[in-house]
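QA checklist item 7 of 12: single-chain prediction sanity check.
[x] sequence parsed
[x] length recorded as 197
[x] structure emitted
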Amino acid sequence: MTTGTKKAVNRQGYKTGESVVYPTHGVGRITAIEEQEVAGYKLELFVIFFEKDKMTLRVPTAKAAAVGMRKLSEPALIAKALETVSGRARIKRTMWSRRAQEYEAKINSGDIIQIAEVVRDLYRSDAQPEQSYSERQLYEAALDRLVREVAAVNGTMESEAIKLIETHLAKSPKRAKTAEAEIEAEADAEDDQEEAA
């Protein structure tokens, strides 16, 4: 067991006091590295506290990589995620239930770029139609994960991270305009086919 007065303990490249990303829970902090006896075996565990959820998780140090635990993203990757957010939304024309599963898998992957894609694809500006409850839930889950990591990497408050992400979302091509352009393009294509016939 470690105590607050000892220096940071280092295991598998992680140390106490360090912020990490756990795929299904987002950003947490390693508060301790402890040993427990389980079924007669000594097991070394990372103790990770998730402030927002007021939850503590214990992860075997040997399994950290296998479960997808990772260090915070580098600033360059955060910049790429913000660039992704300001890109054009890509909405597949499949059933919502299938898309929802894909979005959930992306959110729980722990991959910052995939999480940014969900934020981008499910974002709705004030001028756009309301989201369904499940769309809103997925959007908020993805946004929360992105905000927490951006704030942790940039060393800012979450409110500042939200403003930064919203600034990038505002740069994205507006969906309403995109949809209108697609409808006009389809109508033009049909007119061209009729003229050619």
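[x] summary fact logged: The chain has two domains: 10-71, 75-181.
[ ] second reviewer sign-off
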